Amino acid sequence: MEKQEKPILVTRSSMPSFEEFTEMIRPIWDSAWLTNMGEYHQELERQLKEYMKTDNLVLFVNGHMALEMVIQAMELTGEVITTPFTFASTTHAIVRNGLTPVFCDIDPVNYTMDPDKIEALITDKTSAIIPVHVYGNFCDVERIEQIAKKHNLKVIYDAAHTFGAEYKGKSAAAYGDASIYSFHATKVFNTIEGGAVAFGEPWMGHRLNCLKNFGIVDQEHVVWVGGNAKMNEFQAAMGICNLRHVDGEIEKRRHVAERYLEHLEGVKGLKLPSYDNPDWKPNYAYFPVVFDGFVAGRDLVWDYLASHKIYSRKYFYPLTNEFQCYQGRFSGEQTPVAKYVADRVLTLPMYADLAMEDVDRICGLLKEIK
Ligand code: T4K
Questions:
Q1: How many whole angstroms separate alpha carbon 245 and alpha carbon 248?
Q2: Which stretch of DSSP H or E encloses residue 290?
Q3: 37: CA distance to ligand 1 center in Å?
Q4: pLDDT band at 5 (very low <50, low <70, confident <90, very high)
Q5: Residue 187 Cα to ligand 1 middle (Å)
């Protein structure tokens, strides 16, 4: 009988052992304190500040609400320059704050916002730039800072993919006026669902903490039109457990990335991630491959792998400026490089526990495509 192939998905959550987590959540039963900035919430916040080397960090229920609320906290107005080569969250957070996204094209090498194209998009309505460190690749933070200073704009980085990565010895939290992280189940570090804002100016901490709790300052004073975006104690407990193991998980991801490169370097028509930059400590969050001049187009490759139960993903296709909900307002034609990449990219399976023999099989399948 033919051996049944097990499905391989694009990622698989990193988890502590069952025993480690259940031991961790026992005190939650004893105290019956489940949410609203409990002890684990405070402890995880403290540990993350240390890990990310930042003084200012506020936890959120997820990365998306972190972004929506930091935009609200900064009282941005008018237009925000951003990238369409991202997950839905980045653009939706801008629009849901009543602001207009203005789409900047991306750099064809690392897929982040092209700093040469930002200034032409600035108008008297522009209040901020929201770039994305996509796949954990750092944006050109120096050039973006220069431009923002010159035009008096705020910078909020969508650093959802960046946990554990560093640029010039600093985490993403060190760059821009603020950065948001996602701790979703699919990320390098997860709290099941979760997120955080790291920020430069300490006054923002009070405002963000109020905004995520309905704008309540105390029992008799509600000062902002906030929402509910608090991380609960179970999420924080998962975070504390996962944080103990995250460096080892990133190391395992590095081995996976290196194995992919061993197999795929030199194959015609594949643009692979490059980890050459000595200023960058990567976190191997994703393994994006651009199929450009390969024997088959991206969609055919996706189908072929799927026929073998290997489920890669077209992150990030379609571009957000091509989403149905934005039809007639924005267009991918304004960002041709992003469109070119989005039409050709696949992120291959990448997670700490991906077996080397599975990487070998995925690469073998890719190479047999005619
Ligand atoms: N900004 C950027 C740039 C982002 O990429 C994201 C999120 C955000 C902001 C917002 O952050 P959050 O609010 O989400 O914290 C997934 C994630 O749900 C999303 O967090 C992530 N980006 C995005 C890139 O990927 P989907 O719709 O592709 O997820 P789904 O359910 O198809 O899962 C993908 C694969 O992950 C599955 O095939 C298997 C694996 N998986 C999934 C889940 C839910 C697990 O192993 N465990 C799980 O629990 O969006």
A1: 6
A2: strand 287-291
A3: 25
A4: confident
A5: 7
